Amino acid sequence: MNEFKDMMEELEQADGEEKKLTPKQAQILQAAVEIFAEKGYASSSTSEIAQRANVAEGTIFRHYRTKKELLISIVTPFMAKFMVPFFAARFTRNVFDEPQEEFENLLRTILKDRFAFAAENAPLLRIVLQEMAFHPELQQRFQEVFVKDVYPKFEAALDRLKEAGQVMDRPNGTIIRMIMSSVMGFLVTRFILSPDLEWDDDQEIEQTIAFIMYGLAEK
Amino acid sequence: MNEFKDMMEELEQADGEEKKLTPKQAQILQAAVEIFAEKGYASSSTSEIAQRANVAEGTIFRHYRTKKELLISIVTPFMAKFMVPFFAARFTRNVFDEPQEEFENLLRTILKDRFAFAAENAPLLRIVLQEMAFHPELQQRFQEVFVKDVYPKFEAALDRLKEAGQVMDRPNGTIIRMIMSSVMGFLVTRFILSPDLEWDDDQEIEQTIAFIMYGLAEK
DNA sequence: TTAAAGAGTGAGTGATTACTCACTTTTATT
DNA sequence: AATAAAAGTGAGTAATCACTCACTCTTTAA
């Protein structure tokens, strides 16, 4: 957990700007998140954002030179925070784990942690998924974090799990795709497609863990 | 008489039979698909679509009253075609199957079939995934097809597979989510996120089948 | 106390938007 | 061949867009 906290703090320091917000600036960010999530970036107008934020339209451009800069300043910190625990939390072996429980515990940590985070940031998750497709700047940031940081650590963890006989011997890319599909498929269904259904969250999480674990188990 | 003819025409159009297309109309549809997929619906202008289609802008509105009607006339036939095989293809028991192979064959049919379809219609898949979030009309069409047709047949097939001991006894909604997450996760990764990677498609399909099958197997 | 810097404002601007309409050209029907 | 209907055109339009700028108000610092 120390590792996790350190990384979060580093990130916040690197981004830095989250503390020095003017009240009006915070209102702008909040309104922008809401409206971007509702109508999509391209269909959102700066005038509507200003209106909902109780701010003059010019105030937005005092803090963000363009509408796209507003989007980026919203999305990139979220993207970083969303991905950090994927490689910071439990990808290093926990000495207290029995080897045969390591995979299960890893999955449970990831799922519960990212579930809580997605629950608190559903609109932001929606914005990222929607806008990534059209903004190369966002794709690039994603690449930087995922390909350079998350993926290698994921691979290392998988190699260890394969040696321990907990995961079948398949290409890491394939295995990671399956895990990510299952995790993201759950989060997207839960918080974006059908957020109003009555969910038994703990049960769904446990069953998703089991699904991944048995799907990837050595036969 | 007139009423009857009108009805027939409406029906044929509603069925999505794209036969009576003027050459220029076909050019418009093609250009619209390309540009919607590239920039998203909201960021695409009718003037640009007209330009790429080598058509006057007014011609678009001769055939489609609004820009949104153009989108819908593109997306809904695709949506229907994409979902039909999910309940039409093999959801009824094939008498030649050994019971213990039924699930595997069902998954293989779904995956190979929808893989081929997605390969031929990647831009349309992209448009649907992007625009569904912002257009209630599209969500409604999806509901109509999926909830009323696909889901019930899916459930029936799952109940049979559970009785045959091929699928574990979990809520159908959960199982369907896991299958759809894995299938869509693969298709999205393959054709939208990383279409330019070198893929061993047959191997990926087989491993996805195995992942789902063992993930859902009775323990 | 004062001056400079930063935060906030809202009317104004040129560009772009989806869509219209009067008109011409093509196709279908008799 | 005559005529009507359908297809095609592109200049025109009102609305909206992101963004600017001259100005006021607030905060900071010496």
The portion of residues assigned to helices of chain A is over 70%
Number of helices of chain A: 10
Proportion in β-strands of chain A: under 5%
Largest interface between protein chains, with number of residues from each side: A-B, 31 and 31 residues
CATH class designation of chain A: Mainly Alpha
How are helices and strands ordered from N to C of chain A? Answer: HHHHHHHHHH
- Assign an overall shape of chain A: elongated
CATH superfamily of chain A: Tetracycline Repressor, domain 2
pLDDT under 50 segments of chain A (min length 5)? 1-17
What assembly state would you assign to the polypeptide chains in this entry? homodimer
What kind of sheet is the major sheet of chain A? none
Domain HTH tetR-type (chains A, B): 22-82
DNA-binding region (chains A, B): 45-64
Organism (chains A, B): Halobacillus kuroshimensis
Transmembrane segments (chains A, B): 70-89
Q: Characteristics of this structure?
A:
homodimer; Tetracycline Repressor, domain 2; mainly alpha; 10 helices; DNA-binding; 219 residues
Question: Any chance you could write out the topology, listing elements then pairs?
Answer:
The structure is a homodimer.
Chain A: H1 2-15, H2 23-39, H3 46-52, H4 57-63, H5 67-88, H6 102-120, H7 122-131, H8 136-163, H9 172-193, H10 201-216
The first copy, chain A, binds a DNA duplex (30 and 30 nucleotides) through helix 4.
